[in-house]
Design a protein that fits this description.
Mean pLDDT: 87
Shape: elongated
Structural class: mainly alpha
Order of helices and strands: HHHHHHHHHH
Oligomer: single chain
Helix content: 55-70%
CATH class of the largest domain: Mainly Alpha
């Protein structure tokens, strides 16, 4: 009798994986994490243990899109699931790896001063300077703004 619930649980897991494969709505980080975890029949706790993470709710929060992984965890996930990318389905990390050079090049190519680019995108010159010198990281919100403006 103890093996029946286990078999039943595996069948639910397979059905969930199939449903995820067919779901084309929102394929975000949480979606892909759940997809890869279930396709390997891993519990959230098993994945936490495999990655050496210390917070039990971390994977749940990532899958529920309540949080984003850190750069380090994103790299661990990509490596663990053997993806051909440096980061786990996260264009933010891919695009901001060398953001300082991209921002500088954009400004120079477009013949803009720091003040001119800041006026154009409505940020302080101090913020741009910190980004361009890599003294401050670009937030996800600012990243999306820069992406929409085709700066990154």
């Amino acid at each position: 009798m103890t093996s029946i619930p286990y078999i039943y649980k595996i069948k639910i897991g397979v059905a969930e994986v199939e449903q995820l494969q067919n779901d084309v709505k929102s394929k975000n980080i949480g979606f892909w994490l759940r997809y890869h975890r279930l396709s390997r029949n891993l519990s959230m706790q098993a994945l936490i243990d495999e990655l050496g993470l210390s917070y039990p709710s971390y994977i749940k929060n990532l899958e529920g899109s309540l949080a984003f992984p850190s750069r380090d965890v994103s790299m661990k996930l990509a490596e663990y699931f053997k993806l051909d990318t440096k980061y786990f389905y996260d264009p933010y990390f891919e695009d901001t790896d060398d953001y300082d050079k991209k921002l500088y090049n954009y400004r120079i190519i477009n013949n803009l001063t720091i003040d001119e680019i800041c006026e154009k995108i409505c940020i302080s010159s101090g913020t741009w300077y910190k980004w361009e010198t890599k003294r401050s990281a670009i937030s996800r919100r600012s990243y999306l703004k820069l992406k929409d403006l085709r700066i990154l």
